[in-house]
Amino acid sequence: MSVHLEHKSNPILPFGKFIIRVLTYFLFSFILIVFSLGIGTIGYNYFGGLSIIDSFYNASMILTGMGPVNEMKTDGAKLFSSFFALYSGIAFLGFFAVIFAPIAHRLLHILHLQDT
């Protein structure tokens, strides 16, 4: 994904183009969330022996920071669950950073324009 944000000396992006930028960043985050849910669902299904629905439920709960639902009984399932939880903690924050990056950039750009 190529990022070309306007420099502080450039005029602020028109609102329509800003909305397209926000939607593009949101779509990128959405794709990463779906990918992460897929990895979690497959992992819980394979390592934990859970049904697809229960695996998706566990992956969703871990990915959002709510915590596990089902107990993992095997060492492999516990290891997968641990590594997925570590990944999820970082990924969840990253998803929201990507979503809010253009909004924060625009706000800082507006504040800088008002400063000059």
UniProtKB/TrEMBL annotation:
<keyword id="KW-0472">Membrane</keyword>
<protein>
    <recommendedName>
        <fullName>Potassium channel domain-containing protein</fullName>
    </recommendedName>
</protein>
<feature type="transmembrane region" description="Helical">
    <location>
        <begin position="18"/>
        <end position="40"/>
    </location>
</feature>
<feature type="transmembrane region" description="Helical">
    <location>
        <begin position="79"/>
        <end position="103"/>
    </location>
</feature>
<keyword id="KW-1133">Transmembrane helix</keyword>
<keyword id="KW-0812">Transmembrane</keyword>
<feature type="transmembrane region" description="Helical">
    <location>
        <begin position="46"/>
        <end position="67"/>
    </location>
</feature>
